[in-house]
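hey so i finally got around to running the thing on that chain from the lab meeting. sorry it took forever, my laptop kept dying and i had to restart like 3 times. anyway pasting the input first so we r on the same page abt which one it is
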Amino acid sequence: MIVFLMSFFRSAFPGSLWVALVMLALPFASGTAQEMSTRVRVSIPPSGRGYALIEIVGTRGDTLDFGTGAPGVYRRTLTVLNPGSDTLLFQGDPDSDCGCISGQLDKLIIPPGDSAKLRVEFLVSSIPRRLSHDIILWSNARGRSPVTLVVTVNVVPEIGVVPPTFLLKNLKAGKETQATVIIKNRSEAPISFSTPTLVDTAGMRVRIKIPERFTLRPSEELKVGAAVIVPRDPNPTAYLRLATSCASQPEVRVYLVWDD
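ok and heres what got predicted. didnt touch it at all, straight out
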């Protein structure tokens, strides 16, 4: 069936137009468009009138870097140019190496000198780390098929605690030691905090200077102090727990640690 379609369109339509029509008809001849993109890649022959090229505008090389940010959905629309002398043809929307990232073209056929829009959407988890995933574009571009667009983002938690623990220096049994941390809202929305609770502090005398309830606006921060008197063998798993309104961090824990 596929061979018949290619022969029919090639004889009926000039130039590279027959290739585009075959591509549009292939899903109906051999399954859905999505099945075609994962099952087979069709080699697109040149029309004989020149060659297609591909250039992605809005990236550094073939890398799209969203920089540093909190968990969430990252979106960017890029421009895909065809500076070549033949029509640039894509074999459907781009593939990706993860279900968390997608790319969608607003058109699959780009005449010479024309352009298309590539919409990139990246769903980023709440785990602090540097993420990198690929979007793959298949086309008839001369010497550049597929093109792999590397999309990166450095994920930081929406609620930051600096330093990450109450560090009690020169801790001695029976003597009060103090430490502070700064809680910061790194998100783009207000975050409410409530119910500060001390956990696993049996035998320890701990005073935390913190409101029972408070809200931090974006980029706002609060300094929190701890004053601790410990027995001879303090519990190494004691911590302050805070409930929050942040979906990605419904709870914040700040541990009490000390140097030996």
